[in-house]
């Protein structure tokens, strides 16, 4: 379980003067990154984010457990991948920094590990850049980019400066694909990214699912996100498995997040978590 870093938005905005909020942060619109930060107990969120997050928690009280289980899976997966010799990470939909970020975990194993962080939310960029100011120069970068434009990601000069796409890379898509609508062809987007990486690369992802809730309840969470800056699309186990077509799944295959190589004796249940998790290797 992680302890969220208690950074606050106070340095961005004086609550007595809403006019100081940079316009592109859109504080009046709930943002998934800031709602997730609120679930994790962080302070990088505005009233609209908290209000939307509270409404999700009212119908799905387990969402906090779920967010923490997802974050813990991310950390175990990055540690595992670094243990497999991976030194390069392409982390898309990275979220607001909290304790135990990808470069911190990877660099515990390989001090020279390199990470490109990408997110389409400007607030993530602001916080990530502040965090990375302390990271060793040249080993990590943060870029504003959209997962729906994989060619822009692959061609981005900052990404190319930090990552050598001729060497194995771990593509990390944690809790981000459920913000990609079917009409944007999420399977094709992932395929395009994986195709650009050499043999020995990995795909690690987590994805929200309605597989463990009654059908009548499965649409309630997504309905709240409908007013947010990105909509939520839950997917079934079969759909999540499709992202790994052509890849070899690492043990234990596709499972709910806490069950992926657990390091704790007592785990949340499938229904409490509601997140599929898997890691696959490109042969
Ligand atoms: C729930 S957070 C996950 C954070 C982190 N990956 C984790 O698992 O702890 C989802 C992140 O995906 C980002 N996101 C949503 N849609 C995106 C898109 N189309 N392109 C890039 N990032 C996106 C959000 O801004 C948010 O920071």
Can you offer a commentary on this structure?
The protein has one domain: 3-Layer(aba) Sandwich (Rossmann fold), CATH 3.40.50.150. Helix 1 (32-39) packs across helix 2 (47-59) and helix 3 runs parallel beside helix 4 (102-109). The protein contains eleven helices and eight strands. The protein is globular. Strands 1, 2, 3, 4, 5, 6, 7 and 8 form an eight-stranded mixed sheet that branches. The model is unreliable at 1-21 (pLDDT under 50). Helix 4 (102-109) links the parallel strand 1 (88-92) and strand 2. The chain has helices spanning 32-39, 47-59, 63-83, 102-109, 122-132, 150-155, 157-162, 186-195, 220-225, 237-242, 270-273; strands spanning 88-92, 114-119, 140-144, 170-174, 202-208, 248-249, 255-256, 275-281. The two termini are 32 Å apart. It has 283 residues and is of the alpha/beta class. Bound molecules: S-adenosylmethionine (SAM).
Give a quick summary of the entry.
The protein is an alpha/beta fold. It has helices at residues 32-39, 47-59, 63-83, 102-109, 122-132, 150-155, 157-162, 186-195, 220-225, 237-242, 270-273, and strands spanning 88-92, 114-119, 140-144, 170-174, 202-208, 248-249, 255-256, 275-281. Strands 1, 2, 3, 4, 5, 6, 7 and 8 form an eight-stranded mixed beta sheet that branches.
Which helices and strands occur, and which strands form pairs?
Blueprint: H1 32-39, H2 47-59, H3 63-83, E1 88-92, H4 102-109, E2 114-119, H5 122-132, E3 140-144, H6 150-155, H7 157-162, E4 170-174, H8 186-195, E5 202-208, H9 220-225, H10 237-242, E6 248-249, E7 255-256, H11 270-273, E8 275-281
Parallel strand pairs: 1-2, 1-4, 2-3, 4-5
Antiparallel strand pairs: 5-8, 6-8, 7-8
Bound molecules: S-adenosylmethionine.
């Amino acid at each position: 379980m992680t302890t969220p870093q208690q950074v606050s938005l106070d340095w961005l905005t004086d609550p007595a003067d809403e006019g100081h909020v940079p316009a592109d942060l859109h504080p009046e619109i709930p943002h998934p990154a800031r709602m997730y930060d609120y679930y994790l107990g962080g302070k990088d969120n505005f009233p609209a984010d908290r209000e939307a997050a509270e409404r999700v928690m009212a119908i799905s009280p387990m969402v906090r457990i779920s967010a923490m289980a997802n974050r813990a899976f991310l950390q175990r997966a990055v540690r595992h991948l670094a243990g497999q010799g991976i030194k390069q990470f392409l982390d898309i939909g990275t979220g607001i920094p909290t304790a135990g970020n990808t470069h911190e975990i990877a660099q515990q194993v390989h001090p020279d590990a390199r990470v490109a962080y990408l997110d389409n939310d400007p607030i993530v960029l602001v916080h990530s850049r502040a965090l990375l100011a302390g990271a060793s120069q040249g080993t990590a970068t943060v870029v504003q980019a959209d997962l729906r434009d994989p060619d822009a990601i692959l061609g981005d000069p900052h990404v190319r400066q930090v990552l050598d796409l001729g060497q194995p890379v771990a593509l990390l898509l944690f809790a981000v694909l459920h913000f990609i609508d079917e009409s944007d062809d999420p399977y094709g987007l992932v395929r395009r990214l994986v195709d650009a990486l050499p043999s020995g690369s990995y795909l690690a992802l987590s994805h929200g699912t309605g597989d463990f809730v009654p059908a009548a309840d499965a649409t309630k969470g997504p309905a709240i996100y409908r007013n947010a800056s990105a909509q939520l699309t839950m997917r079934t186990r079969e759909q999540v498995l499709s992202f790994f077509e052509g890849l070899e799944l690492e043990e234990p295959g596709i499972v709910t997040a806490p069950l992926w190589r657990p390091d704790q004796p007592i785990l949340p249940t499938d229904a409490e978590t509601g997140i599929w998790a898997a890691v696959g290797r490109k042969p």
